[in-house]
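During the reporting period the student researcher (J.K.) took over the structure-prediction task from the postdoctoral fellow and processed the backlog of single-chain submissions. One of the processed entries is reproduced below for the supervisory committee.
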Amino acid sequence: MPPRQESGEPRGTKPVPPYLWASKSALRRIREALDREGNVASGLAVYFALCEAASNAGADTFAITHGELAALSGLSPRTVRSRLAELANIGLITVSTPLLKCASTYTLLAFSDRQPLPNERQRQKKALLPPSETTLKEQRKNGEGTLGASQAAGNTQAPAITKPCPAVAGPASKIPDEQWLDILQKSEPYKALDVRKEYARMVTWCSVNGKQPSRRRFVNWLNRCDRPMQTAAPPAVQTPAGQPNASVALLRDQKELERIEAALREARARYNEPGGTAADAADVRRLSKRRAELIAALGFQA
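J.K. obtained the following structure tokens:
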């Protein structure tokens, strides 16, 4: 083991544990690639933080959160995310981001001075997706997950749908948006809906709520729409010849019941008077019996 050094002594040329190591070729690559944007200092700080994390883990592949890298580098989590994407673009690291909000896995890659810098097209092709640790609020601040550039510039035309729809997977996801909307309109589940009108409504909702229009979102939107009811005319009631229609008979019985009840009240009033006769009592019995028959026919409660 190398001798233990005391504080204040010259450090010497031989490393003394614990230590981390970084390739000079990688450091030169960072200076060359990030000098144009003025991000050399922050890029070196993030790379040194990754090297320290690899040394702590004892392996080139390790898991660490953006917050821990920010603490090691002295930068903000947003700056750390930007520099991580640039380090991946120039071939110094690879990043594996889980679906859940967990720590990403990083791998430090070997590097040679003879390896050329990637051109602009290669950088765009290798650009990282937004990490799962990025919150929606931070994405909106960065301009991600909000309206497209055309709408930000004042263009009110509906943006193109870029994400594939689950119902149109595989090669069908390359169908142009206009043709895709026509297919939805002709499909059985959405025939009763005005698909293009609903699409315009969905785009307006996304612009107000800071969401990104997508095919998946639009299909979910259509599935929540209320279908207009297609009412059919009631079937004609077939009645035997010589017999009245059921609705006509019901109305007739209701009117007769009203007349019977009025006549019954008058007959009871006459019978209860001092001069009530046996004829009045017979009228009360006859009207009460007819009233009970009508109530039973109409299904009312007596």
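The committee noted the following: The domain at 24-140 is CATH 1.10.10 (Arc Repressor Mutant, subunit A).
J.K. will present the remaining backlog at the next meeting.
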